[in-house]
Design goal:
By secondary structure, the protein is mainly α. The chain has helices at residues 15-41, 49-76, 90-109. The protein has one domain. It has three helices and no strands. Helix 2 (49-76) packs antiparallel against helix 3 (90-109).
Length: 117
C-alpha cells in the first residue's frame, strides 16, 4: 500500500488562525470517531470478565475522545461551552445513547440487573 503524503503544516500566525484551521479540520474527524465508536460499541462484548472489562474500558475511552473532540470543535468555532441546543444533533444523541448503554453495562457488571423481562 503506497504511503499517503503527510499534509504540509502551515505555521499559525496567531490563535485565530489555529481556530480557523481546527474549525474545518475537526468536524469530519469527529464524524469518523463517532462512526468508529458506533461500530465498536455495537459488537458483542466478550463473555469473560476480563474481556468484558476491556471492552467496557475501550468504549469509555472512545466516549472521552469524542467528548474532547466536541469540546475542541466548539472552542475552534468560538463557542467554548455553548449551551445545548433545544434539539440535540445526531452526535449528541449518539453520545447520550452510548453513555446510557455504558451505564447499563456497568450496572450489569456490578450484579445490579433489574431486567424488566
Amino acid at each position: 500500500m503506497p504511503k499517503t503524503p503527510t499534509p504540509r503544516r502551515r505555521k499559525a500566525r496567531d490563535l485565530d488562525a489555529v481556530r480557523d484551521r481546527l474549525s474545518t479540520l475537526l468536524p469530519p474527524l469527529l464524524e469518523n470517531a463517532a462512526a468508529s465508536y458506533q461500530t465498536f460499541a455495537s459488537l458483542q462484548p466478550p463473555d469473560d470478565a476480563k474481556g468484558f472489562t476491556a471492552h467496557h474500558s475501550a468504549c469509555k475511552a472512545a466516549l472521552a475522545h469524542l467528548d474532547l473532540l466536541a469540546k475542541l470543535a466548539r472552542w475552534a468555532e468560538g463557542k467554548e461551552e455553548a449551551p445545548p441546543a433545544a434539539e440535540p444533533d445526531a452526535t449528541d444523541r449518539l453520545l447520550a445513547e452510548a453513555q446510557a448503554a455504558l451505564a447499563e453495562y456497568a450496572d450489569m457488571e456490578d450484579g445490579d440487573t433489574d431486567d424488566p423481562t
